[in-house]
Amino acid sequence: MQGIDIERVTSWLAANIPGAVAPFSFDLIAGGRSNLTFRVAGADGTQFVLRRPPLGHVLATAHDMAREYRIIAAVGTTGVPVPPALGLCTDPEVNGVPFYVMGFVDGVVLDSPEKAAALTPELKVAASEHLIDVLADLHAVDVDAVGLGDLAKREGYVERQVKRWSTQWEQSKTRELPAIDEVARRLRDRIPTQKGVSIAHGDYRFGNCLTDVGRGRIAAVLDWELCTLGDPLADVGYLGVYWNDGDATQARANDPTPAGGFPTYSALLDRYSSRTGRDLSDIDYYVAFSCWRLAVISEGVYARYLHGAMGNQEGVDFDTFKVGTEGLAERALAAVRRLA
């Protein structure tokens, strides 16, 4: 099994994870440029999930297993649904890289309109409302009380992000895109006052959750590798990038909402505001920022492909990243202009 030293990992699991009974089977659930996720089944049928950095990763801090495990363990003490944190291995002798193990949670990752077909219109509404309620609950967590107060800097989140991704654009752009530059300028010119500090997931959407499609409930929030402390409205704006209100040209392939039957993004904003008391009158700023950031990320992937740094990935159409950058830049520009 590529990415798993079966003999050594088996010994570690049996010794460190309560209820883990050898031998184990390992099946890759998700891979690619992000962390690798394996389903682990014990001899008695009990299932676990193992997360490790991607193969051949270079930056030790880019896929910090101990940090991700710490976050899940801390959030797990709150009412926010996450998989149970079961164990962390930082000894490279076991599997070459750190990894952690969490409990298996049953559910569907709603990352396409086709998967959304599993829900009735009533369950689509229920799941959407619970998605926003879970986000509100996450943003209400006392970071000091759960031991995450030192996870990152607390203030100036958006300002730091705009600076970081502006630099990233200059380093990775493959052509001039005036929309990117205009959005960056407009974002810099009206940095919002950060109202409070919360746990910011960084990639919050249906595609990073397990949904109980039979009940219309979020069973667990996944993929905490981009999590930090910061402005809670950044998560709310980011969700708007992955929420389609009927414009097919703006639909993202991994967004289930183009299937129809979901509440509007505006309805979600009203629910979040009602739950938290936060003013969302400037939410277009955060939608613009999120589209712009994703555009820069997409351009970075395309640039690495052009420079031959992505290796042989047959079946991947990297031109979609080029087109995606342009589309996201235009969405960002439209959103930031609505603030004028």
What descriptors fit this protein?
11 helices; 13% strand; 340 residues; Aminoglycoside 3'-phosphotransferase, Chain: A, domain 2; 5-stranded antiparallel beta sheet; alpha+beta; Phosphorylase Kinase, domain 1; two-stranded antiparallel ribbon
Explain this structure to me?
The strands form three sheets. The protein has a five-stranded antiparallel beta sheet with strand order 1-2-3-5-4, with helices on both faces. It has a two-stranded antiparallel sheet with strand order 6-9. It has two domains: 6-103, Phosphorylase Kinase, domain 1; 113-337, Alpha-Beta Complex (Aminoglycoside 3'-phosphotransferase, Chain: A, domain 2), CATH 3.90.1200. The longest helix is centred in the last third of the chain and has 24 residues, at 283-306. The relative contact order is 0.12. The radius of gyration is 20 Å and the shape is globular. It has helices spanning 6-16, 65-75, 92-95, 113-116, 121-139, 157-172, 178-189, 233-241, 265-276, 283-306, 319-337; strands spanning 25-30, 36-41, 47-52, 85-89, 99-103, 198-200, 209-212, 217-221, 228-230. The mean pLDDT is 92. It is built from eleven helices and nine strands. By secondary structure, it is an alpha+beta fold.
Uncertain segments: none
Number of helices: 11
CATH topology of the largest domain: Aminoglycoside 3'-phosphotransferase, Chain: A, domain 2
Helix proportion of residues, in percent?
40-55%
Please outline the helices and strands.
Blueprint: H1 6-16, E1 25-30, E2 36-41, E3 47-52, H2 65-75, E4 85-89, H3 92-95, E5 99-103, H4 113-116, H5 121-139, H6 157-172, H7 178-189, E6 198-200, E7 209-212, E8 217-221, E9 228-230, H8 233-241, H9 265-276, H10 283-306, H11 319-337
Antiparallel strand pairs: 1-2, 2-3, 3-5, 4-5, 6-9, 7-8
